[in-house]
Amino acid sequence: MNLNRRHFVGAALAVTASSGLLARSAPLPHRTPSPLLPAVPAAPASAQQPALLAEAMAAMDSHAAYIGRRDRLGLVDFALPSRERRFSLIDIEGGKVEHMWLVAHGKGSDLTNTGFVQRFSNDPGSNASSRGAYVTATPYYGKHGRSQRLVGLDSENSMALERAIVIHGADYVDPTMIDEHGRIGRSFGCFAVEDGEVARVMDALGEGRLLYAGKSV
Questions:
Q1: Which domain, by its residues, includes 151?
Q2: What is the pLDDT of the chain when averaged over all its residues?
Q3: CA-based Rg of the chain, rounded to a whole angstrom?
Q4: pTM here?
Q5: The CATH number of the domain where 178 resides is what?
Q6: Cystine design at 103: which of 87, 151, 201, 217 (Cβ 3.0–4.6 Å)?
Q7: Structural domain total, the chain
Q8: Does a structural domain hold residue 77?
């Protein structure tokens, strides 16, 4: 089923209102996988993630019916500790990392607050991060201010809408915490970024783009 951006956003809002899953009754059409990104120019070691980039590009092809904009994507490597900038904005056409941000993981993924993701979960109430492919949906203003809904496209993150897993800013994502604690704070499973950076993240991704989360090793 091919969805243009208007149809998809409408469907996402309907799903949010009804607490149902995104309909995927028909299999996605077969598509020839896109070539991998060109070599990323010299950047911090944490930006060079060939295994995860390959996963993300494969996900973009397998979920092509839902990804309306393919010029850039968001990539979160939860193999890295929370003190590192592990949320990358990838310019697909230019083959480079445009920007990198700090991003929190869920408390349920790191019960002892080590700064490292220990596990993933898709279960409501788990407060954990989920791995897999998301598509950015409608922005809104909530208790964390400007935020953006995400629709999970894989079985590992299919409950994202029901769990209210979104992109938002948070005061516990603060670089000064790293000097004191060696890590930033944890979310309830959301992709929480610095308060001062959330507008930049949302403007860069917009609606209908891929956000892919996983562990590169």
A1: 5-19+45-214
A2: 83
A3: 16
A4: 0.78
A5: 2.40.440.10
A6: 87
A7: 1
A8: yes
